[in-house]
Design a protein that fits this description.
The mean pLDDT is 95. The termini are far apart. The chain has a two-stranded antiparallel ribbon with strand order 1-2. It is built from 16 helices and 10 strands. 39% of the residues lie in helices and 8% in strands.
Length: 412
């Protein structure tokens, strides 16, 4: 029979587990080809050996609770992989080359590529602001944003567009079922999408001209906007509302070309704008009251699930017909729980913010740092010793005053 923990004992146990996993997953060395040093946290031993862009951002934020020096080393490794034009890829291979079946499904344009030709949600500048200092003092971060603005802003309004579901980091999220259909991530025809986009060099405008689909995805732009604010740039929140907020449903939904023929699923992406410090309070309160805190939708035993429990696409299965993992179709992930937690804190829902933190922490204390959690029972799912789940420390140990503005000045 498991021993009941006091709150203090549970917190100590979680902190020890987070430190253990972060240190175990830490990788360092020099790239054999050119001697470039690297330091990063692999997401999970075995299945995730490389450096993933947004994983590193979240890991850097978690490291500040354990060994702050590692936060800067982690993010500088992303910059060390940067091309001269400012591009940083979704996955960086360092000294372990791409091999096996992943050669057919990863977004590379050459067999010996040092990183993918695709992007992930660009939270580098925001993570730097939270865990390191002022990102404006690092010119390579600004160069990265210049590349994103030049190559991934389809309409000139500042918002970014993605060319594949996995560029969002949300992979097989059910929000993409209506957009990519049989070519969605984790389905057999996804390989055809990868090969088509390889031929087009992962060039947004060429892919859009070829019929797409291309997508203006919400979470991608939330994290990009937080990074822009970290750099002192103008906010995209108003534009995000104009382009992706469905006032009738009270949710943020992806825009796509061509427009999907059927209704877009209600997923956690619809709530991630809660993390924006300048989201109008009227919209924020509606997201919280009508959706996040609804037990039939997102306020599960371990909230929030990655898909509304009321949506027909909600599922607790994480494998498809070809036995490939299909992520983000129901279970709860700690990173999006934290983004929603920031919104609860900002909008004054202190009790609910504490409840969210306590429920996630209880699952972590019992199951360890897992990739994601069953939202009703809290059972651990996916990879074990998953680094970014150490973000639970942000909900347990964070500076609430700083969290209220997402670690940014409200006037930004």
């Amino acid at each position: 029979m498991p021993t009941l923990m006091t709150a203090a004992t549970q917190r100590d146990h979680i902190r020890e587990e987070c430190e253990r996993v972060l240190r175990q997953n830490w990788r360092r060395g020099e790239r054999a080809a050119d001697g470039v040093p690297f330091h990063y946290t692999c997401p999970s031993p075995g299945h995730y050996p490389w450096q993933w862009y947004w994983d590193s951002g979240f890991a850097a934020i978690a490291w500040r609770h354990v060994e702050p020096e590692h936060s800067e080393l982690e993010l500088r490794s992303l910059l060390a992989a940067q091309r001269s034009d400012g591009f940083i890829g979704h996955t960086i291979f360092w000294n372990e080359p791409l091999s096996g079946p992943r050669r057919y499904t990863y977004n590379v344009t050459a067999a010996d590529a040092s990183m993918t030709a695709s992007i992930q949600p660009p939270l580098l500048a925001w993570a730097w602001r939270i865990a390191v200092g002022d990102p404006r003092e690092e010119p390579r971060i600004m160069r990265h944003h210049e590349w994103l603005a030049a190559h991934r802003d389809l309409d000139g309004d500042g918002l970014l567009w993605i060319v594949q579901p996995d560029e969002s980091g949300l992979d097989a999220s059910t929000q993409f079922d209506a957009i990519w259909g049989h070519r969605a991530h984790g389905l057999a025809a996804f390989v055809l999408l990868v090969h088509r986009n390889r031929r087009l060099g992962y060039d947004l405008r060429r892919i859009a001209a070829a019929g797409g689909p291309v997508c203006c995805e919400v979470t991608t732009n939330v994290l990009y906007n937080l990074s822009r604010l970290s750099l002192g740039q103008s906010s995209l929140t108003e534009t995000l509302i104009e382009r992706t907020y469905d006032a009738q449903r009270g949710l943020f939904l992806p825009a796509a070309r061509p427009a999907p023929a059927r209704r877009t699923a209600t997923t956690i992406a619809a709530l991630t704008p809660l993390a924006l410090p300048d989201l109008p309070e009227e919209i924020g309160h509606r997201l919280v009251r009508e959706h996040l805190l609804d037990p039939a939708q997102f306020w599960s035993a371990v909230p929030p699930p990655s898909v509304s429990q009321a949506d027909p696409s909600f599922s607790l299965r994480d494998t498809g017909r070809i036995h490939q993992r299909r992520y983000w179709r129901g279970p709860t992930w700690v990173n999006t729980a934290w983004l929603c937690w920031l919104g609860l804190v900002r909008l004054g829902y202190e009790q609910q913010a504490n409840q969210l933190a306590e429920r996630v922490a209880a699952a972590v204390a019992r199951e360890g740092l897992r990739e994601y959690y069953e939202p009703r029972s809290g059972s651990g799912m996916g990879a074990r010793d998953f680094a970014w789940s150490a973000l639970v420390l942000e909900m347990l140990e964070s500076d609430r005053e700083a969290a209220r503005s997402s670690f940014l000045e409200r006037s930004s």
